[in-house]
Every structure is written in C-alpha cells, then in structure tokens.
Amino acid sequence: MRCGTVDLGLAKYECLGCEYNSKPVFVCFTCKSRFYHKCGKKYTDDRSEKQQE
C-alpha cells in the first residue's frame, strides 16, 4: 500500500519566524480510506469519538 509515502504527495512545514535551526518537516499524505487498516482505525476512532459527544 502506498499510504503514508511520497507516492501520495507530502506537505512541507517550517517555521518562517525561526532564525536558527529552521529545519523543514515533511509529512506524507495518507489515503484516508477506512478499508486500509492504519487509516481505518483512525476513521473508526474519530467516528466513535464524535458519537460520544
């Protein structure tokens, strides 16, 4: 599965106000599919949390 890899793209985050040690952080996109075990668990957890509210 290509989920969480650069194949699905990524976002670059960096602090523009930091003068020292401004190292960018790269975060890979996920598929957000409930059929993939890793993303599906997050989907299930988020849904159950919303139902408890």
TrEMBL record:
InterPro entries: Zn_Tnp (IPR026889). Residues 1-53 form the Transposase zinc-binding domain. It comes from the Bacteria. This is Transposase zinc-binding domain-containing protein. It comes from Bacillus timonensis. The lineage of its organism: Bacteria, Bacillati, Bacillota, Bacilli, Bacillales.
